[in-house]
Structure formats: structure tokens, C-alpha cells
């Protein structure tokens, strides 16, 4: 994954507040209710700079130890060097880091674990990597909270008939083959839920949507540009034809007339 998944710390910082607003607090509290009493060890997969930890730690009792897993040592190094968030009881959490590829995730990598989490991760995995994650979680046997998996559904306002073409092309790009890896893309949450159910676990899902507008025009602009660029990379035949579409949407954004809803799924699974 380290060869193809390049995520900048600037992008992670830009999206963090909207990620925090969008994630399901109901599922977070449901996960908290299924934790065994005592000190918590929480393994966060694909941690990036630690935004999931900063969001969830204050919602859970302490003491807490967070083990941040990522294939990018620079990103989790930043998370480890930042001030640790406080748990629900006002105590700083302890932070540890581990670097490695998720396809080789082993149950021993998650021992001990009170809870396993991830955010904005599943859709950039392959089927083999996703199965490895679920297999390791099932073996450990603790609750699992997987947030912000894209569904492929996007709603722009004002609407334009070209939106559907861009969305279809973007979703195909999300399931592209790169360096021999076929990404699961918008099917990720559905596949993960099926695998947990197949293992005899219970699951619960909630819709978790980004709502982008003129309150954060920079995030809307960067999301839209990335969305359209990926679609045109998938369908280069549309580049010239959709140049006016880009200009129209950019002018609407500059005037504060464009909004977007980007739909995600949050998934809680437990034995």
C-alpha cells in the first residue's frame, strides 16, 4: 500500500473537522457500551496523523492506550509527537505506533485490544487486505468501529445532469487496478459487514455524510477538484467536454452557491 497510497498531512488536517462532525457519535457510544471494564487498549488502523484518536478518546473512559498502525511512519510520527488528547475523565492518553502493511496484519499485532478502530480506510484497501483486517479483528474478539467508508453517493446543489457521469467515473476510479492491487472502493463497508456477519458477529451501520459549503470553501474546493480529477483520469475522453463543467462549478463555489453532500458509512461490529 505504501507504494500507491499517498496522503498529505495538509489534506488530513483540512478534512479533520468535517470528519469529526460526520462520524456517528451514536455508534461511538454504542461501542463504548460494549467495552470491558478497566484500562483500554485501542488499536487504530491506518491512523494517519491520529484524527480518529483525537475524536474518539474524549468519548471513552480511561485510562487509554492508543496503538496507531500505519504504513507511513512520517504521518504516525507526527501523531505520536503531538500533545496527547484527553480521555473522558480528563487524563492524557498514552500513544504507541506501529508501521506495517495491513495485508500482513496478524491477530498478534492487535494483542491486547479492547477496541479496534479505523477511519477513511476501508475503501482504499484490496479485498485481500480487507479480509486480513476482518480476520484479525474476529480472532481478537473485541468490538470494531470502522468510520467514514465512502459509498459513492454524492449530491451537488445546484444539480447538473453531468454530475451523475462524473460520479460514475469517480466510483470506477475508486475500484481501479494499481500496481496489481484492485481497490474495493465504494463496496468496502458492505463487504466488511458481510465478512463480520459471516463470522457470526453482530453489526450496526449509520450514514455519516460530509456536508460541504461556504462555511469551509477550501475543503469544498479541494474535494471537488480531487473528485473531478479522479473521474477524468478514469475517463480521459471527457477532459475537453467537461472543461465548461469544471468552470461552472468553480464559479458557483467562488460565489458561495455550491454545496455538496458526500455520503459515507460508519460500521460497528462486535462478537
Describe what this molecule looks like in 3D:
The protein is of the alpha/beta class and 271 residues long. The protein is 39% helix and 24% strand. The chain is built from 9 helices and 9 strands. It has helices at residues 9-22, 25-33, 51-56, 73-81, 127-140, 162-174, 188-198, 217-234, 243-254; strands at 40-45, 64-70, 94-99, 115-119, 144-157, 177-178, 181-182, 202-212, 259-270. The strands form 2 sheets. It has a 7-stranded mixed beta sheet with strand order 3-2-1-4-5-9-8. Strand 6 and strand 7 form a beta hairpin. Helix 5 packs parallel to helix 7 (188-198), helix 6 crosses helix 8 and helix 8 runs antiparallel to helix 9 (243-254). The longest helix has 18 residues, at 217-234. The protein is globular. The two termini are 29 Å apart. The relative contact order is 0.16.
Task: Summarize the structure in short.
It contains 9 helices and 9 strands. The protein has 271 residues and is α/β, with parallel strands linked by helices.
* Cross-sheet strand order for the largest sheet: 3-2-1-4-5-9-8
Number of helices: 9
Order of helices and strands: HHEHEHEEHEHEEHEHHE
The total of beta strands comes to 9
Mean pLDDT: 93
Measured on Cα atoms, how large is the radius of gyration?
A: 19 Å
Give the percentage of residues in beta strands. 15-25%
Key phrases:
single chain, 271 residues, alpha/beta, 7-stranded mixed beta sheet, two-stranded antiparallel ribbon, 9 helices, 24% strand, globular
Topology, please?
Blueprint: H1 9-22, H2 25-33, E1 40-45, H3 51-56, E2 64-70, H4 73-81, E3 94-99, E4 115-119, H5 127-140, E5 144-157, H6 162-174, E6 177-178, E7 181-182, H7 188-198, E8 202-212, H8 217-234, H9 243-254, E9 259-270
Parallel strand pairs: 1-2, 1-4, 2-3, 4-5
Antiparallel strand pairs: 5-9, 6-7, 8-9
